[in-house]
Amino acid sequence: MASYPPAIERLLDELTRLPGVGPKTAERYLFALLRQPSAGLKAFGQAVANLHETILNCQRCHNFDTQSPCRYCRDRQRDQQVLCVVADAPDVLAIEQTGVYHGLYHVLGGTINTVEGQGPEQLHIADLLGRIPKEKITEVILAMNPDIEGETTSLYLKKALAPSGVRLTQLARGIPTGGDVTYLDEATLGEAITHRQPT
Amino acid sequence: MASYPPAIERLLDELTRLPGVGPKTAERYLFALLRQPSAGLKAFGQAVANLHETILNCQRCHNFDTQSPCRYCRDRQRDQQVLCVVADAPDVLAIEQTGVYHGLYHVLGGTINTVEGQGPEQLHIADLLGRIPKEKITEVILAMNPDIEGETTSLYLKKALAPSGVRLTQLARGIPTGGDVTYLDEATLGEAITHRQPT
After folding, report:
1. Kind plus residue range of the DSSP H or E element containing A86
2. Where are the alpha helices (DSSP H) in B35-181?
3. Where are the beta strands (DSSP E) in A121-179?
4. What is the CATH number of domain B6-52?
5. Which of A13, A25, A188, B33 maximizes the CB count within 10 A of its CB?
6. Confidence (pTM)
7. Which A-chain residues 67-86 have CB contacts (< 8 A) with chain B?
């Protein structure tokens, strides 16, 4: 079977490490990169090579930023006693973009996923438990995805946080804005009825 | 609207230059890269930065290889008088993997696409025309995709190559292996009837 020269195959292998990228997509990416001018490739390559020097993991909340502690942890205007727990760093930006949350964050760095061998000890759960008494946190909002891994993680955290006596809340379940009652899945519609809110 | 720090935004911009990558995919890729160890990132980043030094465009056929002329152009065992014209370098490997072609290649570097402002002068068509008399080519196989851009390019090449008197062929049109007559699109089925072959 014909194949590319080893140097090209190695690069294709590197590209397939990106999430959801198979051999054909890696090929498309590589040939798209080859069409870019040298200067652009050098700048991009250097940025990737120095990623860990440029983008730091916040020592307090594990969000990614160009400084540690991150800009949310440094911002004294924010409510210092409410903590929103998210699975991954992009979730922080998603919540920031709503403009309705003004507390602090804690990024777990993933969810409990027994199939992929990711247990609670691989996540930033120990520091979360430490932050509650140390920072006198009064409320923890669990903002994991409503899927199996997210629910498992929430359940684990609920048990782990119970002894601290902190107020525990989670994102409201219900009809998404723009949703259609006729076509909603039963689980979502069921949650919307169960958790119906006063008008 | 909340956004990432400038250093992160710049990297996300670079990632969205890859074909088919939007802001959300760029975000997934960036955070996947951040999870990789520093050594891996350095190696990958350097490989991207040095792409144009490692992977060369063959001066003769414009295929990509670690040497120029490329391994197909260097291989004297191949039929030196048959030229297969393809749009992009990955097509060369696809044809090689069939194991049925043993001639030379010519990579155009794209197709004629008037919508995106890519005309014949942006493609390696002038050198193709030059190769025919210089290398005493007897047959040119047009192996462009059977879509609008591919057909336009084939038509253009047909006219441009006519004065040379070279034998012009194209990939056979018909039912793909594993295809189903009931569910084939009319264009393909029509071509399969028109170009029916003796059994």
Report:
1. strand A82-86
2. 38-49, 51-54, 71-74, 89-96, 125-134, 148-161
3. 139-142, 167-170
4. 1.10.8.420
5. B33
6. 0.77
7. 71
